[in-house]
Inverse folding.
């Protein structure tokens, strides 16, 4: 019997001085994304988040909060994944590594308007996966303290 369960992933919103770290993906699907990736067998999600952030950005992160768990079956075009999303602060210099072709700080100022576009682009590339939605949720949380809630996600 084969079980086809979602694959667990993590994403990290690293906020420093009013900007969020994003990476330009080196592998498909193309686009800009939050640092993150798959949880390894035997690994806690917190450890996976710190590991992925370090591998992709060179930053040593301190996880601050759990924003939400995103599990829309269509969030990743490759397969059904679920992502545990953390907020974090970081030390170190931002630099692309591992699966990242580029890493940059993207200012939060004006981000809400930019993300409100039906298909937000950064340097002509899309925001990968559901990361535009995650960033929009983060901006609401940052401004109001209100996290996404399951009641908001019911169809």
């Amino acid at each position: 019997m084969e079980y086809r369960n979602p694959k667990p992933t993590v994403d990290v919103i690293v906020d420093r001085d009013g900007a969020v770290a994003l990476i330009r993906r080196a592998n498909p699907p193309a686009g800009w994304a939050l640092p993150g990736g798959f949880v390894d067998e035997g690994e806690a999600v917190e450890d996976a988040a710190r590991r992925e952030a370090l591998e992709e950005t060179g930053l040593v992160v301190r996880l601050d909060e759990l924003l939400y768990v995103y599990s829309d079956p269509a969030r990743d075009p490759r397969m059904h994944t679920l992502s545990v999303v953390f907020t974090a602060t970081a030390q170190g210099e931002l630099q692309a590594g591992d699966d990242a072709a580029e890493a940059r700080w993207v200012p939060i100022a004006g981000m809400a308007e930019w993300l409100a576009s039906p298909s937000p682009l950064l340097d002509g590339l899309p925001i990968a996966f559901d990361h535009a939605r995650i960033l929009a949720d983060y901006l609401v949380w940052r401004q109001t303290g209100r996290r996404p809630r399951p009641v908001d996600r019911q169809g």
Remarks:
- The longest helix spans residues 131-144.
